[in-house]
Amino acid sequence: RTASRYGERLATHDATLRVLARLREDLFRGWATPETARNLSMQPSRLLFRLTMDVDALDSLYLRLVVPVLASAGAAVAVAVALAFVQPALGLVVGVVLLAGGLGIPLVAAMRAKGVARRRARALESLRSRAIDLVRGQVDLAMSNRLGAHLRLMAATDQSLATADRELNRIESDAGLGLGILGAAILASVLVAVAFLAERGTIGAPVATFAVLLALAALEPFGALRRGAIEFGRTLLAAQRLGPRLAEPPHTDTRESVEDDDLAFRIDHAEVRLSGASRPILQKVSLKAALGEHIAIIGPSGAGKSTLLSLLAGELSPACGKVATRKVGLLTQRTELFRDSLRGNLLTANPSANDTMMLDALNSAGLGSLVTSLPRGLDTMLGEGGTGLSAGQARRLALARLFLRDAPIWLLDEPTEGVDGDTARDVIERIGARAAGRTVVIATHIRREAEIANRLIELKAGRVEADRKQDSVEYGVLVNRLRPN
Q1: In a structure prediction context, what are the per-residue pLDDT tens digits for the chain, which is 485 residues long?
Q2: Could you give the angle at the alpha carbon of 186 between the alpha carbons of 213 and 227, nearest 5°?
Q3: Which of 298, 301, 292, 282 lies closest to 449 in space, CA to CA?
Q4: In whole angstroms, what is the distance from residue 52 CA to residue 125 CA?
Q5: Is residue 442 within a helix (H) or strand (E), and if so which, with residue range?
Q6: Rounded Cα distance, 212 and 327, in Å
Q7: Number of neighbouring beta carbons within 10 Å of residue 36
Q8: In this structure, are residues 400 and 367 in contact, taking their beta carbons and an 8 Å threshold?
Q9: What does DSSP say about strands 439-443 and 294-298: parallel, antiparallel, or unpaired?
Q10: Which of 32, 67, 394, 426 is at a distance of 20 to 30 A from 418, taking alpha carbons?
Q11: In Å, how far are 35, 44, 280, 302, 395 from 277, measured between CA atoms?
Q12: Are 254 and 34 contacting, i.e. CB atoms less than 8 angstroms apart?
């Protein structure tokens, strides 16, 4: 019995963990599609909970529902058949009672706990999300005099969670009591029946003992259903949240290929809408750029500059219109680094890059001397978010990744944002040195970034307001409106 139970646990848990690992990978791939990733980035805690809490909740579906139901039903049939050899009527009655009561009691518990479990799952997610907000935004909360209100809200959420836990514990206790009474009733009934049969001489003492031992253990497999019934609501909620993502077809790039040999990209009457926005972020935008052209996209915050870059990069799909482009490399406004080695962070841009290529990119980005001074060189580990590098060094590493990507078009979203003036000027010079022959599109507010462009495009409210070449008078006027270096 001990060996069989250990083997069952080993097999079922191994299978379940493999399925959950594959499920997490599928979900991560689905959420890594550009538009979904953009939406989830607005609520990172929700992404974390979907990948952890909801996926973990699905293990109950197999380990605590499917397997116990099958095992319990099989055990009930086996007990009924065994007792039928003792007395057919006894086997039939015990089998029916086992199936009806052993499955019915957990079913009633599941229905009672369904709403409570869902409420608990939402309360736990809300509590964790507010705890994250407290840790990350406690200064802002204190400065706005909202810290006390936030703590009271957390306390109220914690109280709701505790109330739900008490209700679930009570339902589980009731289910355990019901199964206990059912087991005692079955044991007493079998005991009376075999005593009657033994007294009449129909069965002997060994058979009577066998029947009593069967009745004693008959309800044990049903005990595993109790916890699964309590978590049924949470499991169902997780399946409802994750199911649509798993059912969606794979993301397809809506961008077309450029057929003109001299053209870098072309946008025809493209419109971009984001969920929750009252109006399109980009409205009927039409643009084209030649190979080797350097373009600065300017305009006030919210005009659609970053959205235009995301459209060209394939991170957003147009609601209408067409986008045709060559391969692009994107340098985002925020430097995204992983808790990995320098090598690992660079390989995300070009998995086939060798050490020579990586060192060349690092030298071009101004990090060559730093890497050669490190004892482990390219194998030096970075902390989470690039911990161990200054803001300027992190930006240079992101720039090295861009250099590694063999793309004829570079999309730069405020490439010197967040770094000091000297570093910013050096970064711009290095971009200019490596940009020969490439099309460069820079979204910027800053004069020094726009000055490397030979064409300026001004966006206002999602529309192209002006498009000027470097040899025009308006070009200088537009540049002078930008923030000084």
Answers
A1: 677 667 767 776 777 778 777 777 777 777 666 666 666 666 666 777 777 778 777 777 777 788 788 888 888 898 899 888 888 898 899 899 999 998 999 999 999 998 898 899 889 888 988 888 888 888 888 888 888 899 999 999 999 999 999 999 999 999 999 999 998 999 999 888 888 888 888 888 888 888 888 888 888 888 888 888 888 888 888 888 777 766 665 556 667 777 777 888 888 888 888 766 678 888 888 888 888 899 989 888 888 888 888 888 888 888 888 888 888 888 888 888 888 888 888 898 888 888 889 888 888 888 888 888 888 888 888 876 666 778 788 888 888 898 888 888 989 888 887 777 788 888 888 888 888 888 999 998 888 888 888 889 888 888 888 888 888 888 888 888 888 86
A2: 90
A3: 298
A4: 11
A5: strand 439-443
A6: 75
A7: 15
A8: yes
A9: parallel
A10: 32
A11: 14, 19, 7, 12, 31
A12: no
Type and span of the H or E element at 393: helix 391-404
Instruction: Please list, residue by residue across 357-382, b when 16 or more beta carbons sit within 10 angstroms of its beta carbon and e when fewer do.
Output: ebbbbbbbbbbeebbeeeeeebeeeb
Q: What is the CA radius of gyration of the chain?
A: 33
- How far apart are the C-alpha atoms of 214 and 76, rounded to whole Å? 10
Q: Which of 311, 306, 335 is nearest to 321 (CA)?
A: 311
Pair 99, 221: CB distance under 8 Å:
no
Domains of the chain: residue spans and CATH: 2-247 (1.20.1560.10), 263-481 (3.40.50.300)
Question: CB atoms < 10 A from the CB of 4, how many?
Answer: 8
10 Å Cβ neighbour count for 144? 11
Where helices occur in 286-354 by DSSP H, the ranges are 305-313, 342-347
Backbone angles phi, psi at 260, to 5 degrees: -75, 125
What is the three-class DSSP state of 390? Answer: coil
At residue 89's C-alpha, the angle toward residues 88 and 92, to 5°, is: 90
Q: What is the DSSP letter of 298?
A: E
Residue type, 451: E
Structure tokens of 430?
Answer: 């290095």
